[in-house]
Write a structure and sequence with these properties.
Layout (H helix, E strand, L loop, with lengths): L8 E4 L9 H4 L3 E6 L4 E6 L5 H8 L4 H8 L8 H8 L6 E9 L5 E11 L6 E8 L8 H15 L4 E7 L3 H10 L4 E5 L2 E7 L14 E3 L1
Parallel strand pairs: 6-7
Antiparallel strand pairs: 1-2, 1-10, 2-3, 3-4, 4-5, 5-6, 7-9, 8-9
Helix pairs in contact: 5-6
């Protein structure tokens, strides 16, 4: 599943993450309070996140897995886990959202990523996945908005995603976060193209604000 279909307000504790500061980005973290009071932490995915990905897989329903991978899938292989967590941060970039308990254990919430297209270096395929218990709570918007900023910082001007036609929640998410997104039918898929050129300048400082998601 590319994301949820959120309608909740959320509030970030930071005005803007330091996307352009490569030496800081590994340490960057954004604490977000959802409208229902839930708190999540958004940060860059690291190789050490393999156990969190394995745990997160158990929180995805068969339908969510189908929407994410466009085919039935029952496990993640060691190679899959390497691919999903060992990233270069430029051509393959991902952020994750987690919960955190009093002992510091992180629980899986969501992942958003893009992979640059080799033949079209200003374009990238993207995906957003939210574990079932956090869907329709505003998390999908949190992740996609931040992914757009990160993509722009890395020279991406177009994001692309292929969705199953029946994935209504993901279609709603994309059209809500980026209303000018274009789509076309191709068999059982809806192919989205999101132009980023006209997005707000990610270098512009903004005050903390509530966002409708």
């Amino acid at each position: 599943m590319i994301g949820d279909s959120p309608r909740a307000a959320l509030q970030s504790t930071r005005a803007r993450p330091p996307w352009g500061a490569e030496e800081l980005e590994v340490l960057w973290e954004d604490e977000v309070t959802l409208a229902d009071g839930g708190r999540i932490y958004v940060r860059v995915v690291r190789p050490s996140d393999r156990p969190t990905f394995e745990e997160g897989w158990t929180h995805l329903s068969a339908e969510t897995r189908l929407f994410r991978f466009l085919a039935p899938r029952d496990h993640l292989s060691p190679g899959d886990l390497d691919y999903l967590t060992d990233l270069d941060g430029v051509d393959h970039y991902a952020i994750g959202a987690v919960t955190r308990d009093a002992d510091g254990h992180e629980g899986p919430v969501a992942v958003a990523r893009f992979v640059r297209m080799r033949d079209h270096p200003h374009e990238a395929d993207f995906a957003v996945t939210v574990v079932d218990e956090y869907q329709r709570r505003g998390v999908g918007s949190v992740m996609l908005e931040r992914l757009v900023v990160a993509a722009l910082k890395r020279g991406i001007t177009t994001l692309r995603a292929d969705l199953l036609v029946e994935n209504e929640a993901a279609k709603h998410l994309i059209r809500k976060v980026v209303p000018r997104a274009q789509s076309r039918l191709q068999g059982a898929l809806v192919c989205f193209e999101i132009p980023l050129e006209a997005e707000e300048d990610p270098d512009r400082e903004e005050p903390d604000r509530e966002e409708t998601a």
